Amino acid sequence: MPAVFDAPGIDYHAFAPEIVLVTTLVLLLFVDLVFEERGRWASSTVAGIGLLAAVVPVLTLAVDGADRSLFAGAYAVDNFALVLKALFLVAGYVTVLISTDYVAEGDYYEGEYYFMLVSSLLGMTVMASARDLVSIFVALELLSIPAYLLAGWRKRDLRGNEASLKYYLLGVFASAVMLYGMSLVFGVSGSTLLSDVGEALSRGAESQPLITVGIVFIVVGFAFKVSAVPFHTWAPDTYQGAPTPITAFLSVASKAAGFVALVQLVFIGFLGREDVWAPMFWVLTALTMTVGNLIALRQTNVVRLLAYSSVAQAGFMLAPFAVAADIPADRGGVGAATGALVTYLLIYAGMNLGAFAVVMAVARRTRSAEIDAFRGLFGYAPALAVLMVIFVFALAGIPPLAGWYAKLVVFKTLLDAGSVAAVTLAVVAAVNSVIALFYYASVARAMVMESPADAGSGRVRVPASLGAALGICALATLAFGAFPGLIAELGDLALLGVLP
Amino acid sequence: MDGLDDIALTAAVFLPLVGAAAMMLTPREHDTGHKVIALLTTLVTLAVGVYLLVGFDYGRADVLQFDVNTSWIDVINSRYILGVDGISLPLLLLSMFVCVLVVIYSWNHFPEPHNPKAFLILILVLETGMNGTFVAQDLILFFVFFEVVLLPMYFMIGVWGGEQRQYAAIKFFLFTLFGSALMILSFLALFFQGGQTFAIADLVAVASDNIPRSSQLLIFGGLFMGFAIKVPMFPFHTWLPDAHTQAPTQGSVILAAILLKLGTYGFVRIAIPILPEAAMAWAPWIGGLAVIGIIYGALGCLAQSDMKRLIAFSSVAHMGYVMLGIATLTEFGINAAVFGMVAHGLITGMLFFVAGSVKDRFHTLELSRLGGLLLQSPRMGWILGFCAMASLGLPGLAGFWGEFPAILAAYNPAEGLSEVLFRTYMVVAAVGTVFAAGYLLWMFQRTAFGTPREEFAQARIPGMHWPEYVAWTPMLILIVVLGLFPGLLFGLTTDAVGGAVAALGGGS
Q1: Which of A33, A283, A470, B507 is most buried, most CB within 10 Å of its CB?
Q2: Considering its fold, how many domains does chain B have in total?
């Protein structure tokens, strides 16, 4: 008797964003194939439109409102997934905008570039829904491998090669560590489904060492991904060597994807085992924000400075994990921690992408990202200088620029938990936000308070698409700063639909 | 008129931003256009202030009026609550008033590197922050406005300042930010322990009952750091002399006249009414630091060789009186403190104006190089003398009513505070007034009396310009009027202060 294969029923609506992305991928290949060199500009247009088109089903799913669960719970479409998919797609769109002229003028492969970028984004949208160890791993590789390639896109540049190789080797190493951890966790729980894992782990006191090692390995693997100290060493070199739009993409979207995976793993799979992960996250948080900030103080290159700043910002994003278990259930429990993290990610995306967009605009004239190259920017390009001031002080968390609210929700989460460890962490974070101001202000100081390094200071020509990206980011940073309610609602909504 | 009342405060806060936006759209070359827009904006804002002053119900000065209460950030239950009472109103008007004068003064006094557009935009943004702080009745909203002033002031000092401007600017920024980081933690702690609300009025009602005493003390400590750095109280004052000395004249005036008041206002509006018990416990320390500040500031003045730095240290001393008044936790003392805030704002603001104009003419503020101002520019010399007199607390001028009642209040502090201790403070503070007379007269004597130094003997020192006349006359008039009729201000504040100290259980 032949084996009967029952194809699982597929909810095509739930899958629509991913389907649109795959269609875009196919179109990109097609464009690359059909149009000769002179038609390559079409790639960025197709990629941009494809990403925006993928937002449409996300919106219809959000309007529909129901939580959907596919493949026996391995793939979920809930508010959390939708908010993050939207974030990934919009961040991806902004990345396409800032890439357009950079890639076209740099004589790089255009078709392939956007193909890789959209592939990576596809991995991220899958990650937002993945509720199973296997699908998390698949999503992770899908988003990482194109990113390794993109990091080395400037292939005749030594730093570019270093960037790609470092990122690749450490990334693969992290994947291996994580995979080993997953195998241990699977061994204890007998299931790859996160909700089953969660139940098994909170019961499984008898295999404590195994569980501990498994959780530690998985968290360490993702600590590499989100560049948490002491697993951050790849980030500055990769950020500096990669093409700047990719740096922006890595520091925003890729990092967010790592946090998304952590939320799902920790708050579903490891819920109940906070005895293992809470102290670990506490140490990671304190180290990440402190070390990231202290090293950032010494940077003389804006891209490296933003790299270390993004390490330090990752510390703030880790903080909700450290205290999530202490938040009383009647105040939202881990949901409150998730909300804080999502809010932080959304706000951070706008301001960090914006900062990188300015770096790119300035580099068009100065061909350099050294802080010295920014000297006197206010004199010859006041609009860009004002935008950069907005972005860096938003990152520093100065009201009324959006960053303040991101910091506030993290502080709020910490004090909500209220334990001694949480309050200590809040004070550490507060001190860190003061340290951070110093280097963010140093960028502003160079731009506004110093005179240009060279006498010839023509205007900086900002291409339309880069200008559009700057506009989007600036608008988000200012609007969310003055009316944080807009973003707070999203953060508050973004709850995991399938909690054990 | 109801509709107007509803938007009056919002307009008072955000009109300057509208003006700033209009200036941003105006090309840089139109210097006069920028000046006119800035002046009109500040004038219209002041007109709103006058409307508030006229419409204010003086019989109910202890209640918030013109209040607005709409949703802002629902998720954290923070609301857009604005309102003025007898404590806020004078400070709000002071802020509006000083901003107009600063813009007028700027007419032909733009410091290097000029750029009136950017400079005036910063002043307008500052005004939004300051006005907002004085009317915000929600902690998060208060925090946002409290911080909005940082960036413009940072750039104002850092771009238009003196030689050490970058150092002074970042020092100012870091100090204040450190304080506000602890302050926001305290706000959040109040939120969680005080009943899940940020509304100041609600917190005043419930916080002291809900929060255990040990937490209250800690939370007050956080608030204290935030506000004390801003005031600034000894030993957190070290940013002030640098910031004042390096800032352009207009920056110094705004800093002295209004920004410092944000700190003392925070004590009166937030820290003390919400956490009266903790205030009791902290009051002896605050009072102690206040009198140390008085003496230290005075001694600091005597050691200065730079006129602007001297005035900056005198601010430390004067804010010491304000803080001493607050530390007594009596209605009398806090009334004196609010009066002191306004008086100090006018008088020290004027001193910085004059110092700026002296610097314009002599290109130095070294006391050892100045002299004979009365010969070379008699009017300015006499105005300086007048302000020095006002500042040392001469009866009949505004300074007296800030200083003298504060000292008097320390004789009889609130029930529960040590009388011996506060009477000691009183004696020390009284000695401080002697010092104050000393250093102010010394400064006046060295700059105004005698004959000009050799290097300036032949220099033609221009007399006062019309922007100086226009900008200074209203301030001088107010100093006299408030000095002769202190009831104008005390009448406004007394009821409101009574409400604020009601939580202390009877107060005086």
Answers
A1: A470
A2: 1
Using a CB-CB cut-off of 8 Å, the residues of chain A touching B144 are 399-400, 404
- Out of A393, A405, A449, the one facing B158 most closely (by C-beta) is A449
Q: CB–CB of B166 and A433 under 8 A?
A: no
Measured between beta carbons, the chain A residues lying within 8 angstroms of B166 are 445, 449
Distance CA B85, CA B58 (A): 9
Residues of A with CB under 8 A from a CB of B: 339, 382, 389, 393, 398-400, 404-405, 408-409, 411-412, 415-416, 418, 426-427, 430-431, 433-434, 437-438, 441, 444-445, 448-449, 483-485, 488-489, 491-492
ipTM of predicted assembly, 2 dp: 0.90
Contact B166, B158 (CB under 8 A): yes
B505 pLDDT more than 60: no
> Residues B98, B345: contact at Cβ < 8 Å?
yes
pLDDT average, residue stretch B398-418: 89
H or E element that contains A186: helix A158-189
Query: Out of A408, A437, A445, whose CB is closest to B158?
Result: A445
The verdict on B144 touching A (C-beta cutoff 8 Å) is: yes
Residue B363 lies in a domain: yes
| Measured distance CA(B446)–CA(A369) in Å, rounded | 51
Neighbours of A471 (CB within 10 A): 14
pLDDT digits (tens, 9 = 90+) for B118-148: 999 999 999 999 999 999 999 999 999 999 9
The residues spanned by each domain of chain A are 12-493
Contact B174 A488 (CB under 8 A): no
pLDDT of residue A273: 84
Q: What is the overall mean pLDDT for chain B?
A: 89
For A484, which residue in chain B has the nearest alpha carbon? B73
> pLDDT tens-digit profile of B375-394?
888 888 899 999 999 998 88
Residue B508 lies in a domain: no
More confident residue, A19 or A327: A19
The answer to whether B256 touches B344, Cβ cutoff 8 Å, is yes
Domain region containing B364:
2-502
Tally of CB atoms within 10 A around B348: 27
The answer to whether residue B260 sits within a structural domain is: yes
Map tokens 């009952």 to a residue.
Answer: B209
Count contacts between A and B (CB, < 8 Å).
Answer: 89
Name the pLDDT band for A1 (thresholds 50, 70, 90): low
So what's the pLDDT on residue B508?
38
Element (H, E) at A76: strand A75-77
Lowest mean pLDDT of A327-331, A423-427, B82-86, B149-153, name the range.
Answer: A327-331
Neighbouring C-beta atoms of residue A138, cutoff 10 Å: 15
The reply to whether B507 falls in a domain is no
Instruction: Please tell me the distance from the alpha carbon of residue A70 to that of residue A79, in angstroms, as a whole number.
Output: 15
